[in-house]
Every structure is written in structure tokens, then in C-alpha cells.
From TrEMBL, chain A:
It comes from Blastococcus jejuensis. Residues 1-35 form the signal peptide. InterPro entries: Alkaline_phosphatase_core_sf (IPR017850), Phosphodiest/P_Trfase (IPR002591), TAT_signal (IPR006311), TAT_signal_bac_arc (IPR019546). The keyword Iron-sulfur does not apply. Pfam families: Phosphodiest. This is Tat (Twin-arginine translocation) pathway signal sequence. It comes from the Bacteria. PANTHER family: BIS(5'-ADENOSYL)-TRIPHOSPHATASE (PTHR10151:SF120), ECTONUCLEOTIDE PYROPHOSPHATASE/PHOSPHODIESTERASE (PTHR10151). Keywords: Signal.
UniProtKB/TrEMBL annotation, chain B:
The keyword Cytoplasm does not apply. Residues 42-138 form the Phospholipase D N-terminal domain. Coiled coil: none annotated. Residues 1-31 form the signal peptide. The keyword Lyase does not apply. This is Alkaline phosphatase D family protein. Pfam families: PhoD, PhoD_N. Keywords: Signal. It comes from the Bacteria. Residues 151-513 form the PhoD-like phosphatase metallophosphatase domain. Gene3D superfamilies: PhoD-like phosphatase, Purple acid phosphatase-like, N-terminal. It comes from Blastococcus jejuensis.
Length: 420, 549
């Protein structure tokens, strides 16, 4: 953080239920006095959860919200089915060719490195957070992952910086995220809070029993569900429930591979040093983004050859150009997807040993439900509309009566979840 | 119930204000005035509903000599009318069509200019007489999101094996948007060759195996004189595909088990004859030699891809150890149809991807622990070869084309496709099964890429018939063994005959199975047997708490 950024914010320390201190930062001059019964919206992301996991045996609280709210069984994540781009789509309502955020990891041509898109400047489209702030409302972000905190930066009125962060995973466990969410609501009561619970994803990635028992995953699901149940109870006990709308969804799903089911584009191209030296690879688990860095005169033929070689691998589902997936130039020149039960590991065969991955089409189906005590929420309905992560911003925007952003939304307001 | 008493009952229903929809279709042609009965003795039908068009069908008999398959009789102009009310006070479309002996005096009209999701009534006129009235319904608009779709699902109706009371019970329903027939609408056999156990309930006409064009036409005509079949055709539009018996048993692209090349002419000529008669006699958007596989849409709620798994398939393997089973290029659907299927499954604009799938796609491994009689009975039921240990293996269904099945199931899994439902007939038994994403991990994960729901036969023999045992006795052990050996199979009934009703909503799909008390009795009752549901997005089948209301 720069010094000037520090100058524009204040800090608040709240004590969580477990006795730990939650630190929240806020923009200076944020509005404070607002009506108690105004609309409150909570966009809750259960990171990496599959729709078939939202069942009473695994996630009783979520299953209950689903049964008492509006459920979209055909909901899907959008390319690339990774955390950062889908959270950005939720908050902007536009696809990556307009936001500039196509994947978690990209090859930054200017800096010559593969890096995460975790800087505020990486996101080039205004977000729902800023639009709401501009109307005099307040917003909050409670994002468990460091890179999400990074890219959304200071866009929300009130922010929680994930803490404590698990070494290696870069995220705060859900119990702390749950504490921070409660503290955020109690301290500032924002009109919109954007929450990410990261445990189900992080545990899913590392679950060595992913292809069979999913023992660790199931435990994580139960714990995340507990946090959501706790939050709902808190809203009820503090009198906020009847004015609350919860939009609960995942950013992507999860797929598991056996240790030997990997694809290394690096290994594929090693037999062709001319091509290998002209390609940079940004590995995103179930998808590889490939960037041509060789001579421009050889680009067209070289990419055609790379495409042919990569597509021939039995674990590769498809190789496409980014524009076909509505990804912009940040996604490079080719996007390779793997099949279910496979993963990419680049730049080396040991770069990605983790069994749980996403980014490939099998991980598109996501849970997506609207619940809450607000009278506008329809109860117990199931809708065939193909809801997508990019629909969150237009849906929430419509609830607050916001107009469309410049150029319009790419998503659709899922008004079927609400009474007319 | 005889046709006249049924007619009376319907009229009474109309008078009392109940059952208006059923009362407004004329039902069996036999109940019509004699002049209409002579001219339109094969009833009326509709099919392949689109949002603004539906196929209307009838057959005229302008002279006594113009019998089906005769090739004699004058050319005739037949008028047709479509109205929004059963008394034809608001006629919205009308026209005329010419027919004659070249098409066996059948009439098929693709009536366009209609409104989506609308119930219509239609009738034909010829020689100063009017046909029975049929009711039909257009499909919802492409962008519509219907709250519900109800369809009858039927297959395997062997006239020699019983009465079509299954059709009668369906025709009495008020809730059907469409009737899906998955094939074996008629059978090719001569009297005595294939019937109800040893009893020919109703002999086939002509009294020999159908081989020539005239034979196929006559057999189609015989079936179309059945009053129950006529009533169900007149009630709702049908969506139909063929399986093998519309041409000959276990047909493939180059022949059939029940075809003797030479003695019965060439397979090419026989198949062409069967296809011509099919095109003439069925309310389907198909011309002989063309493409039968096609896709219908019901708004954004569902698509229905109807497959033809006979015309393009490679010959069945000879056994479960036949090296052909390992050939990655062997095909059941043919490459073009396979792409058509995969494209339809991947359509993101539609929630439920229904597939009219003539033969079973779920893998089935029959347990070797069954007693010898049961294994032999199953082999007979499936017309399947047996392994050296006596275990049958159905090489005629997707099990016989494993590489192509792997492509379909892999496509569903790799693309994260949800809500794919295969609706299947062919094997004269009721099944509900999941389609494991990976057979080796399925017992632990339960991950399934879709489901399969199989309706029983309208009349055709199944296991108890083959074993000569009472229903629901000896087959129970076989069913238990099959389920134990195939954890993805949640329901199997190898004995019952009847029909299914399928409901499709955004929340789920449910199939109710109804079974006939006695298919050989012309007044057989039908009772609800069981129901299974597929919650949206789950890829799972589970017992439904209750039958459809």
C-alpha cells in the first residue's frame, strides 16, 4: 500500500466471537446514518463448490436456503473458470474482454513474467462497489484470498484484509472470514457486502482423496456451511433478516485428477525447441494460456503448429483462440482446456501436483441461489434460466435500481428470483 | 370398453363439462359415421410439433378396392382444416393435398402459420365426408420458459402379443403435451412367429413376415385400425423414431438378423420398402431415404433429440469377446448423427437435454450368479449372445459399441453438461439408471453425467413370459442380482408391460411407470407401479415420493 492510500482510509478494530481482533479499513467520509430497514444485499461466494454438494447431508444450511429461496440448477461459471476472473465478472457484469481479467495467472508481456492478476490496476472496468458508493450507499468486501483482496483493492467503502493467512494457500480460513463478515456488518452495516469463503476451494485443491472419498473436502464443506448458517442466524438475531437478500454462488466448480493424469505443454513442445522458445505458458490448472513471444513473421504458422501438437494430447479437450471465449489480449494467443480428470502442469511437470483443479469446462456448473428474508425473494422456486457469474452485477444492480454501466452489461439480471 | 361405449362416455363427459379436451377428439374412427369410417378408417394423427407448425396425417380409402398396399384407386384431393376450437368455429388454417396409390392414399401435411404453445383441433375432408377430429398442440416459442411439459413414453407394441390398452389408458389422460414413441411401433413377424408367450392374441396381416412394400403398407394399416392406437394419435402430437422391427429384427446398416439376403430380396430393397411405408404412414417430418434423426425444442425448458440407431450402425458384434468391440471406429449412430447428438447435448440455451434413444445406453453387466434358467431367459429377452460362462451380453445396444458410448459420456463429463436424460425403449422392461462419469470411481463418488429412463413394452414379451412363470416371481431374483452387480441401476422391472408418463419442470424430471394387469385382455386395467425423479442439476435418479398429480 502506498502512503497516499493510507491517508485515505481509517481503521477499525473489532473483537470477534473467538476473542481475536478483526481489523477493517474504511474510506474516509463514508456515510454512516442510514435507515434500518433499507435493502441489504450479501453476495456470498462458496469458492469452488459443486452444485451437487449443496445437499442436506453435506451443507444443510445452504440446502435450506436453497429450498426456501430461488435455485438456478443450470448455473455456470464462465471462462476461464478461475477465481479472480469470475469474482470480477460478478462485480462488473462484463466479460473478460472488457474487464481485462481473463484468468488467475497471465503472462504479463510488459513485465515479461507470469503473474497473478492481483493488482487493483489489473481490473479496468468499474465495479458495482463503486457504482453503489457513487449513489451514497456503502459497500464492503470480506474476501478470504489475498489475490482477491489485491485486485478489488480499495473499491469497497469498507474492507477486510484476510488474516491470518494460511501459508502456501494465501487465504484466511473460513472461521476467520466468518468473524470478519459479522464484524463488518455489525460495525458498518454496508448496503452490499461481497464475501468469499475460500476453504472449500483450498481444501478441494489439496484433497488427495478427491477422485474417490473426498474426505477432507466434505469436512470443509460442512465447516463452510456452518459459517453461512452462523451468518444467517446473526442477521436474524440483529433484525436485519427481513431486509436482506443473499445471493450465494460459487465462482467455479472442482475436478480431481490422479497423479499421472497431467498435461505439460512444456513437455509437448520440448521436441520443438524453435516453438518452445517462442511460447510463454500461464498455467491455470484446467486451462493453459499460451502466448507467442517469437518472431512476428513466424507467429501464424508457429501457433498453428503449437495448436496441432497440444490438441493431439489425449488429455486435451480443445485449443481455442481467446476471442472465441470472450477473453481479451491478456489471455494470450491460445487457450488449451483439459478433459475431466486431467490437469495442466506448466512450466514443468512438477509445477502443479495438486489433485483438485478447475478452469476447464467440467468445472463450469456452479451452485447459484437467491435467498433471504426480504419480501421480494421468491420462496421455493427452481428456475431453468442459465444463470452465470456475470449475472450477479446486473441482478444486484437491478435490486438497487442502478442503470447499466457504459456499454451495457454482458450479464442478465436474474429477476425471476424476485417477485415483480 | 368397446369403442361405442367409450364414445358415449366422452359425450357424457362433454355434457357434464368434464373432460372437455378428451371429449373433443373423436377417438376411434370406428365410432364415426359409416361414410367417414369408410373413408377415414385409419384415423387421424399429428406429430413433430414445432412452435408454428405441426404434421397432420390421415389415410383415405376412396373406393372399396383402394385397400392399403393394393396400389389401386383414384387420385384424391383431401381438404384439411385447423381450428382453435373443437367445433371448428374458429378455423385458422385450411388447405388441400393430393394423394393416390403412389403413396398408398396417405396424406401428410406440414401445417404452418400456427401460434406457439397452442392447442388446435384438425380434421380432413374427402369425397363429401369428414374425418374424425384430432387434437394437437404446438411447441412453445424458442425463448419461452414453460413451467411444465408432460409426455407419454412408450415403445414395443406387438399387436400379436396383446391389446393396446396402454394406449387407451394414455388416451384417457388430459395432461399430455406429446407422446414419445421410441420404436418397435409395429413388428414384422408372421402369425405364430412372435406373440404373447405361445398365444397369438391378434394375428398379423398380412399373414406372413412383411418383406415387400405392399407388406409393410398393409401391416402399418392394420396397426392403424386399432381403436386405442387411433385414440392416442388423435389426442396429442406424437414424436416417433424407429427401432429395428419397423424393418426387421436387429437391423444394422447392411442387413438384419431377421433378413435372409436373396430369399427375401436385397436388404437395400427391403429397407427402402420399410422406409417408404414408414414415411407414408407415420405422422413424422420424414421422407423416405431422408434423415429421421431430428431435434425438437420445448422453449428453453427442454430439447428432444430423436435418434435413428439402425440406419447407420455397424453390424452387431458376435459376442462379448468379439475383437470388434475394441474397434474405436465402430459406430452405432454414424459420424454425422453422433455430431448432431453431441451438439444438442452441449446447447447451453436449453435446460433438459432429452434424448429419444431407441436402445439402452447405461452399461449392464448381468451377474453370473443367476440360475441357468434366468440367464437363458435374459439372453432370449435380449436376443443376445452368451459368454462361455453363460452370461448374456447385449451387443445390440450401446454396450455393443463401447467406444462410441465413451465418446458420448465423455462429452457429457468433459463439457460439464447437466440435465441430460436418455429416454429409451427396446428391451421390454422398465429401468432407471445413472450414467457413471467413471465406472471405477462411481461406487465411491456417485458422480454421474446423466440418467436413463427406460419404459416397458406396450405388449411385447419380457422375462416372465419367456420363462413361463407368473409375473413378479422368478424375475425378482434376477432384478436383485442385476442391481447388485450394477450399482448405477436404481430400478429394473423385467416383467411388466405398460407405459410411462414423464414430467419435465425446471426443478426436475419424473417418470411414472404404469403396468397393465393383463396385456392379453382387451379391457385390461393399468395400475401405477413406481416413480423415479431426477432433481435438476444432479445427474441422479432417486425414488419419487409420489406419483405425478
Amino acid at each position: 500500500m502506498s502512503g497516499s492510500a493510507l491517508d485515505r482510509r481509517t481503521f477499525l478494530k473489532a473483537t470477534a466471537a473467538g476473542g481475536l481482533t478483526v481489523v477493517l479499513s474504511s474510506a474516509l467520509g463514508a456515510p454512516t446514518a442510514r435507515a434500518a430497514d433499507r435493502l441489504r444485499v450479501y453476495v456470498v461466494v462458496v469458492d469452488g463448490t459443486r452444485p451437487d454438494e449443496v445437499v442436506p447431508a453435506l451443507m444443510p444450511n445452504l440446502a435450506g436456503l436453497r429450498a426456501r429461496g430461488a435455485w438456478f440448477p443450470s448455473a455456470r461459471s464462465l471462462p476461464v473458470m478461475e477465481t479472480i476472473p469470475n469474482h470480477v465478472m460478478m462485480m462488473t457484469g462484463v466479460r473478460p474482454d472488457r474487464s481485462g481479467v481473463p484468468a488467475n495467472a497471465v503472462y504479463d508481456r510488459a513485465e515479461g513474467v507470469v503473474r497473478d492478476l492481483d493488482r487493483p490496476s489489473d481490473l479496468r472496468f468499474p465495479t458495482l462497489l463503486e457504482w453503489l458508493n457513487a449513489t451514497g450507499r456503502t459497500t464492503g468486501t470480506v474476501l478470504s484470498k489475498e489475490y482477491l483482496f489485491g485486485i478489488f483493492g480499495e473499491r469497497a467503502t469498507h474492507r477486510w484484509e484476510p488474516f491470518p493467512v494460511v501459508p502456501g494457500s494465501g487465504h484466511a480460513p473460513d472461521v476467520f472470514t466468518g468473524d470478519a463478515l459479522v464484524a463488518m456488518v455489525d460495525s458498518f452495516d454496508p448496503d452490499l457486502v461481497f464475501v468469499n469463503f475460500g476453504d472449500t476451494d483450498r481444501v478441494g485443491h489439496s484433497d488427495l482423496t478427491g477422485t474417490t472419498l473426498r474426505a477432507a473436502r466434505r469436512a470443509a464443506l460442512a465447516n463452510t456451511d456452518l459459517q453461512i448458517g452462523r451468518f444467517v442466524t446473526h442477521l436474524q438475531q440483529t433484525g436485519r433478516w427481513s431486509s436482506s437478500v443473499l445471493l450465494v454462488l460459487a465462482d467455479h466448480s472442482m475436478d480431481w485428477s490422479l497423479p499421472d493424469r497431467f498435461i505439460s505443454v512444456d513437455a509437448i513442445l520440448r521436441a520443438r525447441p524453435d516453438l518452445r522458445s517462442s511460447i510463454q505458458i500461464a498455467q491455470n490448472g484446467g486451462a493453459d494460456l499460451l502466448y507467442w513471444t517469437g518472431p512476428s513473421g513466424a507467429r501464424s504458422a508457429g501457433l498453428a503448429e503449437v495448436r496441432r501438437l497440444v490438441a493431439a494430447h489425449p488429455g486435451v479437450l480443445s485449443v481455442q483462440v481467446p476471442a472465441d471465449l470472450r477473453l481479451g489480449p491478456e489471455a494470450g494467443d491460445l487457450v488449451a482446456y483439459c478433459r475431466a480428470g486431467w490437469r495442466f502442469t506448466d512450466p514443468t511437470p512438477v509445477s502443479n501436483p495438486i489433485p483438485g483443479n478447475h478452469g476447464h469446462p467440467v468445472t463450469e456448473p456452479i451452485p447459484f441461489l437467491v435467498a433471504g428474508g426480504h419480501p421480494a425473494v421468491r420462496r421455493g422456486v427452481v428456475l431453468s434460466a442459465p444463470a452465470r457469474t456475470v449475472d450477479v452485477a446486473p441482478t444486484v444492480g437491478a435490486l438497487f435500481g442502478l442503470g447499466a454501466p457504459p456499454g451495457g452489461y454482458d450479464g442478465t439480471a436474474r429477476t425471476g428470483a424476485f417477485r415483480p | 370398453m368397446n369403442p361405442l361405449s367409450r364414445r358415449t362416455a366422452l359425450q357424457l363427459a362433454a355434457v357434464t363439462g368434464t373432460g372437455l379436451a378428451a371429449a373433443s377428439v373423436a377417438g376411434p374412427a370406428a365410432a364415426a359415421p359409416s361414410s367417414s369410417r369408410r373413408m377415414f378408417g385409419h384415423g387421424v394423427a399429428s406429430g413433430d410439433p414445432l412452435p408454428t407448425a405441426v404434421v397432420l396425417w390421415t389415410r383415405v380409402t376412396p373406393t372399396a378396392a383402394s385397400t392399403p398396399g393394393s396400389g389401386v384407386g383414384p387420385a384424391v384431393t383431401v381438404g384439411w382444416e385447423v381450428a382453435t376450437d373443437p367445433r371448428f368455429r374458429r378455423i385458422v388454417r385450411r388447405g388441400s393435398a393430393r394423394t393416390g396409390p403412389a403413396r398408398d392414399h396417405t396424406v401428410k401435411v406440414d401445417a404452418g402459420g400456427l401460434s406457439p404453445a397452442t392447442t388446435y383441433w384438425y380434421r380432413f375432408t374427402a369425397g363429401g365426408t369428414t374425418s374424425p377430429v384430432g387434437r394437437t398442440r404446438t411447441a412453445p416459442a424458442p425463448s419461452a420458459r414453460p413451467a411444465r411439459l408432460r409426455m407419454a413414453v412408450v415403445s414395443c407394441a406387438n399387436l400379436q402379443a396383446g391389446w393396446f390398452t396402454a394406449y387407451r389408458h394414455l388416451a384417457a389422460r388430459q395432461d399430455l403435451d406429446v407422446v414419445v414413441h421410441l420404436g418397435d411401433y409395429l413388428y414384422e413377424y408372421a402369425p405364430g412367429e412372435y406373440q404373447a408367450r405361445d398365444v397369438v392374441v391378434r394375428p398379423h396381416d398380412p399373414a406372413h413376415e412383411m418383406v415387400t412394400l405392399a407388406d409393410y403398407r398393409r401391416r402399418h394399416a392394420q396397426y392403424k385400425t386399432d381403436p386405442d392406437l387411433q385414440a392416442l394419435h388423435a389426442l396429442a402430437p406424437w414424436v416417433i423414431t424407429w427401432d429395428d422391427h419397423e424393418s426387421a429384427n436387429d437391423a444394422w446398416s447392411g442387413g438384419a438378423e431377421n433378413h435372409t439376403e436373396g430369399a427375401e430380396g436385397t436388404w437395400a430393397a427391403r429397407r427402402a420398402a420399410s422406409q417408404q411405408a414408414y414415411a407414408e404412414w407415420m405422422p413424422v417430418r420424414y421422407t423416405a431415404g431422408g434423415r429421421l434423426y431430428r431435434r425438437l425444442r420445448f422453449g428453453r425448458l427442454a430439447s428432444l433429440s430423436m435418434l435413428d440407431l439402425r440406419t447407420y450402425r455397424d453390424r452387431q458384434a458376435s459376442s462379448m469377446v468379439d475383437p470388434a468391440l475394441d474397434d474405436p471406429d465402430r459406430t452405432l449412430a454414424g459420424p454425422e448423427q453422433l455430431e448432431f447428438l453431441l451438439d444438442g447435448l452441449a446447447d447451453p440455451a436449453v435446460q433438459w437435454k432429452l434424448v429419444g434413444n431407441p436402445v439402452m445406453i447405461a452399461p449392464v453387466r448381468f451377474p453370473s450368479t443367476l440360475d441357468g434358467d434366468a440367464l437363458r431367459g435374459i439372453a432370449t429377452l435380449l436376443d443376445a449372445p452368451v459368454s462361455p460362462s453363460g452370461v448374456p451380453y447385449n451387443v445390440d445396444q450401446w454396450d455393443g459399441y463401447p467406444a462410441e458410448r465413451a465418446r458420448v459420456l465423455g462429452h457429457l463429463r468433459d463439457r460439464g453438461i447437466t440435465d441430460a436424460v436418455f429416454l429409451t425403449g427396446d428391451i421390454h422392461s422398465g429401468w432407471a439408471a445413472e450414467l457413471p462419469a467413471d465406472a471405477s470411481t462411481y461406487p465411491a463418488t456417485g458422480d454421474s453425467v446423466g440418467v436413463e429412463l427406460v419404459c416397458s413394452s406396450v405388449t411385447s414379451d419380457n422375462l416372465d413370459d419367456i420363462l413361463g412363470t407368473p409375473p413378479r416371481t422368478t424375475s425378482l431374483a434376477a432384478e436383485t442380482g442385476i442391481r447388485a452387480n450394477n450399482p448405477h441401476i436404481k430400478y429394473v422391472d423385467l416383467d411388466s408391460h405398460g407405459f410411462s408418463v414423464l414430467e419435465v419442470t425446471p426443478a426436475g424430471v419424473q417418470m411414472d411407470w404404469f403396468v397393465l394387469v393383463d396385456r392379453t385382455h382387451p379391457d385390461s386395467g393399468a395400475v401405477w407401479s413406481t416413480s423415479f425423479r431426477v432433481p435438476a442439476g444432479s445427474g441422479r435418479v432417486e425414488p419419487a415420493p409420489r406419483r405425478l398429480a
